[in-house]
Amino acid sequence: MATTADFKNGLCIDFNGKPCSIVWFQHVKPGKGGAFVKVKMRNLENGRILENTFTAGEKIELVSIERRPYQFLYKDESGFYFMHNETYEQIELQPEMIENADLMKDGQYVEMMFHADENRVLTCELPPFVELEVTYSEPGLKGDTASTSALKSATLETGAEIKVPLFINQGEKIKVDTRTRAYYERVR
Fold it and tell me: pTM for the complete prediction?
């Protein structure tokens, strides 16, 4: 058991029976009345941001969360299959549990968050950046634009479609930000 005095960013608590991670908090001591704590937290099951106000000193139930490394093996009609890097245990996840699953290629390493008490998967996170090959892109013509921020569609080796600058051609490797699905840089 913890109290609101123990709050820090990243702390995992039980809020209304759901595991949540504190994203932001602020202790407030008004001139009149009791102190309270404003909190923004992320629901670890669905990713929603929740806001709540706790009275200062309120008891909070902590949740034990474990991060485990897994490797993506393959995908079929029933889901995505992963293998733990040390124990070789294999698990299956449904597509809705993986954000930007179409940016994941075979052999990709991911990190999964587990509810330690229940031993169930909460989230599956790709690394911040992945390197992928462009399998299809219209050729960019010289003088197409006066602006340097012009973009075109490109299909990646995983089947994902993102926007890339005009100078990116088919067959090139690029780095993609998995959080925003945006082109980051060309890989040499």
Answer: 0.77
